[in-house]
Amino acid sequence: MSVIISPSLLSVDFLELKTELERLNEIDDLWLHLDVMDSHFVPNLTFGEPVLNKVKTVSKHKLDAHFMVTDPDFFVENFKNVGLHNFTFHWEATKNPEELIKKIKALYPSAGISLKPGTPLSAIPMKIWEMVDLVLIMSVEPGFGGQKFMPESIDKVIALDLIRHENKLNFQIQVDGGINGENAGYLIQAGANNLVAGSYVFGAPNKDYLSRINKIR
Ligand code: DX5
Ligand code: ZN
Question: What is its EC number (predicted)?
């Protein structure tokens, strides 16, 4: 599996959104990571459907939405015309994950679940691993960009890769939080094949995003 890089829009200069999206359009094989926060599941508030409807008209990349929200069910319906490729919700935010995944799969090409750093892999039933297209391992506490990478997430990726391998599953393993050119190699070796990076990409000197993306790759 080749590695997908998903730059997180949370770290973009929002006053330059269109230009920045066009800049990312010059780079191939990216996803665009969209952190939707409701100021309830996490102590931060970002953007919703009206903004993402505009993003979709400019970006050529697959839209990868990470819902840090208390009521993901509401967003499944509400975002159905945004053109998302992947819809990831937090395991900690749902009571009926099987139903939710079915709903997502009826409307979006890819369904993902995300685990906060404190949620062990053992909390997830096998049935769920079999249903999802993507598993997002958080390597920081969700809510903000620019935080420090938690190295213990590497072991979680290794253990998840084993679950995937032993059960002949092929969900993507995505990691999100504090990823840079130094820790990316360890994550890829551990089995991750989809890496989110916000402040590292958008903090590139002279807006040379490709050089930072290539360092991760
Ligand atoms: C944090 C978000 C991340 C964030 C990553 O809750 O889910 O996607 O944008 O930002 P960096 O790469 O700066 O840690
Ligand atoms: Zn995210």
Answer: 5.1.3.1
